Amino acid sequence: SSRPQEATDILARIARLYHEVETPCANMKPEERQRRRQEHAAPILAGIFAKLEELKQQTIPSEPLRKAVDYALNQRQALCRYLEDGRLRPDNNLAENAMRPVALGRKNWLFVGSERGGRAAALFMSLIQSCKTCDVNPWEYFGDILRRIMSHPVSRLRELLPDQWKPLPKEEQGLLLPARG
């Protein structure tokens, strides 16, 4: 049987977490965010899990709602983990959004040519997503590191990853291989 009202109630409670807790604390320091979550989000989550326990008793195992309830209850510890660390997000939206281009391109990548080509494509997609996550322009990033990488010390390659990268100053760019184009 379908139970849209029960599902709607749970979704409304989840929405409260975002509207009443996450939105107001978006610009807070992690320690402040953790305190606010403990004070405001923890009781909302407790209510959600109490309702889920109640729904578990009212549904049969084959119902889609029951399957969703069981899944949520089995993930309780992981779902509550963000309450303990103000640096964490309450969802995995960043990871989901980062994976969207991979999912959209999956059929195209059947034709990368070889396993080695697939690895290279995956490496570049990973670097491009890292650039986007770090607010780095991928075009500028690749243009810079491809000119620098041959003369950059191997022991300092970490500096060329998107989260650490800093463009080479203009006065030093002439010392590298010229950009082709």
TrEMBL record:
Which Pfam families does this entry report, sorted A to Z?
DDE_Tnp_IS66 (PF03050), DDE_Tnp_IS66_C (PF13817)
Domain Transposase IS66 C-terminal residue range list: 126-162
Q: Where is the Transposase IS66 central domain?
A: 5-119
Q: Which top-rank group of organisms is this from? A: Bacteria
Q: What is this protein called?
A: IS66 C-terminal element
